[in-house]
Amino acid sequence: MLPAEPARPTLAQMIGQMLLVGFRGTALDPTNPVVADLQTANLGGVMLSDYDGLYKTWGLNITDPQQVQSLVRELHSVAATPPLIAIDQEGGQVMRFKPQYGFPTNVGHAELGATNDLAFTREQATVIAKTLAEMGVNLNFAPVVDLNINPDNPVIARYGRSFSAQPAQVLAHALVYILAHHAAGVGCTLKHFPGHGSSTVDSHEDWVDVTATWQWQELEPYRALIDAGVVDAIMTAHIYNANFDSNDPATLSPATINGLLRDQLGYTGVVISDDLQMAAITRYYGPDLAIQQAITAGVDMLLIANNAMYAADTVPRTVAMIEGWVQQGVIPLERIELSYQRIQHMKSSLAGTG
Q: Given 50, 202, 245, 274, which residue is catalytic?
C-alpha cells in the first residue's frame, strides 16, 4: 500500500507560515497568545528580544541561557509546525544574547573588517553560531552586508555593523560568517537589501531616501553570495530609492524585490521584511496597507516585532486579513502558495545543516 499523501495545508495555515512575530514572556503559560498562534494559527516563526520597547525595560524574552533553552523547548512543544526561532545576534553592539545575561562576548562586523583576518572572523562567527544552536535558535538576522559608504550613517556605521566600504571585503567576511553558522546548523539572513549603508537617516525613526547616495556596488555582496548558493534568507530595507521605484520603499516595492532581487540577481529563496512596525513604514502606511503591499512586492515572511506596539491578536488578525484578500482576489492564491513553498524549503534546508 502506498503511503498516504500528506494533507494539503489550508489557506490559513499557509498564511500563518508567512508570519514571523515577536511575543512577550520569558516562559510560556497556556494563556500566552503565542501558544495559540503556534498551535492553531500555524505561526511560521518567532523572534526573541531582550528589550521591551513598550515598557522600556529589559528581559522581554531573555534573562539567562537556561531560561532561553527552556523557553525555546516550550515553543517547539506547542507548535503545530516546527517554527523558526530567530534573533538579531550580529555581534558587537547588536546582540540580544548579551554578556550580562551570561552569554559570550563577540566583536562586531566593523572590528572584524578592520582586523581583516578571516580566521578571526570564522572564530567569532563560530562562537555566535554555537551559542545560537545551544539555545535552539535556528535563524540569525545576520550578517549585515551593507557597505560602509557613509561613515556618519546613524544606523549602520554608528553601531559598527558593516564589515567594510569595499564589496570584496564585505563578501569575504560575510561568506566566512555564513559558513560558520551553517556548520552549527543555524541559518543566516543577509541584510538590508538593496543596501542601507549610504543612508543619512535611520529607518527605525523616519522615511529614508537614498536616491542620491545609493551605489550599484552595494548589490555585489548579494550577487556573489546568491551565486555561491549559501543564502538562506534576505531581509529587505525600508529605504526609498527613486531609481528603482518612484513610489514606495524596497520592502513594499515589486520593482525592487521581484524585479531587482529575483529577476536580475536570480534569487529564488525566502525574502523577509524588516520589522513592519518601524517608523519608515508606520508613519507613511497603515499597517494593513503595508502588509498587503509587502506580499504583492514579493516578501515571503512578514516580520512584526510586536514590541514597541503590541497587540495580543496580531497573528490571528493578520491571517484573517490576508485570507480575506485572497478570497476577494486582491492577492492571488498562487502568491501565497509560492511563499509557503519557499518557507518550507528553507526550513527543510536548515534542518539538514550542521
A: 274
